[in-house]
Amino acid sequence: MKYTIKLYITGQTARSLRAIDNLKRICDGELLGQYELVVIDVLERPQLAEDEKILATPMVVKELPPPIRRIIGDLSDTERVLLGLDLRPLPS
């Protein structure tokens, strides 16, 4: 089983870059490479953001495995991110 995670950002701001770094650190530490991370800049793909109903950024959407989970912020609180996205390490 692999996790599918999308991170919606608005431009290459300090907050966006911090969210990318934090999410990569969390995923690398907890999901042991069993994930696909897609970073979407809503300035470049506004229609996609509208279709997904992205109202604030940075926002993470965990699509797989179900259920879909969303969390907003720079993702600096690892425990909050793990709990909010229902991320658990996969069994070895």
Protein described:
- The protein has 92 residues and is α+β, with helices and mostly antiparallel strands.
- The protein has a single domain, classed as Glutaredoxin.
- 33% of the residues lie in helices and 26% in strands.
- It is built from three helices and four strands, in the order βαβαββα.
- The protein has a four-stranded mixed β-sheet with strand order 2-1-3-4, covered by helices on one side.
Secondary structure blueprint with pairings:
Blueprint: E1 3-9, H1 14-30, E2 35-41, H2 46-51, E3 59-64, E4 69-72, H3 78-84
Number of DSSP helical runs:
3
Instruction: Let me know the CATH homologous superfamily.
Output: Glutaredoxin
Q: Give the percentage of residues in beta strands.
A: 25-35%
* Amino-to-carboxy terminus distance: 11 Å
Sheet with the most strands? 4 strands, mixed
Strand line-up in the sheet with most strands: 2-1-3-4
Question: Helices and strands, in N-to-C order?
Answer: EHEHEEH
**CATH 2nd-level architecture:** 3-Layer(aba) Sandwich
- CATH topology-level name: Glutaredoxin
What structural class is derived from the secondary structure elements?
alpha+beta
**What does the overall shape look like?**
globular
Query: Residue ranges: pLDDT <50 for 5 or more in a row?
Result: none
